[in-house]
């Protein structure tokens, strides 16, 4: 039975949202403040074709740090591109993914960003074990162990040949890397629900299993999303908060849970920035 959570415990709850850095990190930081994202955001990296986004200039980095310092930003979560597949057996796909994760780790670490999350990848037929070994090798060439940033493995829905839909697969990746101390977990509510973890009717049980397999101390962030698809569907389709199969009460239970309430929550729901601003305000009122 979860212990009671009082309203005062939730006053400083961190709720951010998924924001593109297509117009540069300075503009994104300004938008975080404007949209009242509790000074946190999930910064989405973008790729056009096979061109990785450019590095910020010294001036841009300094301005980003100024905004962040003055606004009192908390932990920021950068999101690696969805197009990279670190589990792939195709040399050109795998080499590109290795380059992306290596450059993103370096770039985000230099900016002082605390966390970088990525989708582990899809094995596309070579099998989960071989795909996991590719992911491990890709992380080892990207992480030296000297970084301050933590790289987060995201829990996945299990569509197709996706890796990371079972907690055991995420454990196998972390256990295999050379620097496990730099690896954490980001739990996506839509993904775990679709993967068959019943956070609606048995949230305590899911967290107990997570703790048993991975350890709750590894959980650094929550992607708070409703699901368009039913429980156990293994299909990844995000819905607005309260507009899907998980429902508003179950998601509020996630936010209020004593073992989760101090983590940062990030929205990836299908809304624009204005819609996310309203969604964040609504969640704060309800929570």
Secondary-structure blueprint:
Layout: E1 15-20, H1 25-34, E2 42-44, E3 47-48, E4 51-52, H2 58-71, E5 77-79, H3 91-110, E6 115-118, H4 128-142, E7 150-154, H5 167-176, E8 183-188, H6 189-195, H7 203-213, E9 219-224, E10 226-227, E11 238-239, H8 248-256, E12 265-267, H9 273-286
Parallel strand pairs: 1-2, 1-12, 2-5, 5-6, 6-7, 7-8, 8-9, 9-12
Antiparallel strand pairs: 3-4, 10-11
Helix pairs in contact: 1-2, 3-4, 4-5
Describe this structure in words.
- The chain is α/β, with parallel strands linked by helices.
- Helix content is 38%, strand content 15%.
- It is built from nine helices and twelve strands.
- The protein has helices at 25-34, 58-71, 91-110, 128-142, 167-176, 189-195, 203-213, 248-256, 273-286; strands at 15-20, 42-44, 47-48, 51-52, 77-79, 115-118, 150-154, 183-188, 219-224, 226-227, 238-239, 265-267.
- Strand 1, helix 1 (25-34) and strand 2 form a beta-alpha-beta unit.
- Helix 3 packs across helix 4 (128-142) and helix 4 (128-142) crosses helix 5 (167-176).
- The protein is globular and about 45 Å long.
- The two termini are 19 Å apart.
């Amino acid at each position: 039975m979860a212990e009671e959570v009082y309203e005062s415990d939730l006053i400083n709850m961190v709720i951010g949202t998924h924001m593109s850095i297509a117009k540069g990190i300075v503009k994104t930081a300004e938008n975080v403040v404007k949209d009242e994202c509790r000074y946190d955001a999930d910064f989405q990296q973008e790729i056009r074709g096979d061109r990785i986004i450019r590095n910020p200039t010294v001036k841009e980095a300094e301005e980003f740090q100024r905004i962040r310092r003055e606004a009192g930003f908390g932990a920021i979560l950068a999101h690696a591109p969805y197009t990279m597949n670190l589990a792939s057996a195709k040399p050109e796909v795998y080499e590109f993914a290795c380059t992306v994760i290596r450059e993103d780790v370096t770039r985000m670490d230099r900016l002082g960003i605390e966390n970088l999350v990525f989708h582990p990848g899809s094995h596309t037929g070579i099998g989960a074990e071989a795909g996991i070994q590719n992911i491990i090798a890709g992380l080892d060439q990207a992480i030296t162990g000297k970084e301050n940033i933590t790289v987060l493995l995201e829990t996945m829905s299990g569509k197709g040949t996706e890796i990371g839909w079972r907690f055991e697969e995420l454990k196998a990746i972390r256990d295999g890397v050379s620097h496990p101390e730099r690896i954490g977990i980001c739990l996506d509510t839509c993904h775990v629900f679709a993967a068959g973890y019943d956070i609606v009717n048995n949230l305590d049980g899911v967290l107990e299993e997570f703790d048993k397999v991975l350890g709750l101390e590894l959980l650094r962030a929550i992607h708070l999303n409703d699901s368009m698809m039913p429980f156990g569907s293994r299909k990844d389709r995000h819905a607005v908060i309260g507009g899907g199969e998980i429902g508003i009460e179950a998601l509020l239970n996630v936010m209020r849970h004593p073992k989760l309430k101090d983590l940062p929550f990030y929205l990836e729901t299908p809304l624009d920035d204005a819609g996310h601003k309203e969604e964040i305000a609504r969640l704060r009122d309800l929570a």
